Amino acid sequence: MKLNPDCIRDILLAVEEVADGENELIIEEDQIPDSLSAYSFNEIFYHSKQCKSSGYFEDMRVFIVPAFSISDLSPQGHEMLRLIREETTFNKIKKALVDKGLPFALEAVKSIIIG
Fold it and tell me: For the residues 73-88, what does the mean pLDDT come to?
C-alpha cells in the first residue's frame, strides 16, 4: 500500500484529540471515528503501523477483533504534527515532494520542512 499523507495527518490529529495517556483512541472495523471516515479500516491500520514504526506513538495495541488502540503521541509524533498541522503548509510540503520527484515518506517530510 502506498503511503497516503492525508491519512497520516488525519490519524495524528485524531490521536491528539482523544488520547492523553489515560484515554486511548480506539478504532474498530465497524466504528471508525468521523474524522477518519474517508479511509478504510485497513488503510487506517496500515498507516497507524507506519506511524508507530516511525516512533510517533507511545503505544499501539492490536486486538483479536479487527480493532486497535493508540495510547498517545510520542514527542516525535507531536513534533511531526506541529510541522504538518496547518493545511496550507501541509499542501506546500506535498507539492514540494512531488516537484522534487520524491515519494511521500515521513522522513522526507522533515527534510522538506528543514530544507
Answer: 91
* The three three-digit cell numbers of residue 73, written as one number: 503521541
Q: Is 8 exposed, middle or buried (0-12, 13-18, 19+ CB in 10 A)?
A: buried
Grid cell locating 113: 520542512
Measured distance CA(105)–CA(10) in Å, rounded: 15
What percent of the chain clears pLDDT 70, i.e. is strictly above it? Answer: 88
> Phi-psi bin for 68: left (phi > 0), alpha (psi -120 to 50), beta?
beta
21-49 per-position pLDDT tens digit: 789 999 999 999 999 999 999 999 999 99
Cell numbers representing residue 4 in the block: 497516503
Gap between the Cα atoms of 97 and 28, Å rounded? 32
pTM score of the predicted model: 0.88
**In whole angstroms, what is the distance from residue 31 CA to residue 70 CA?**
15
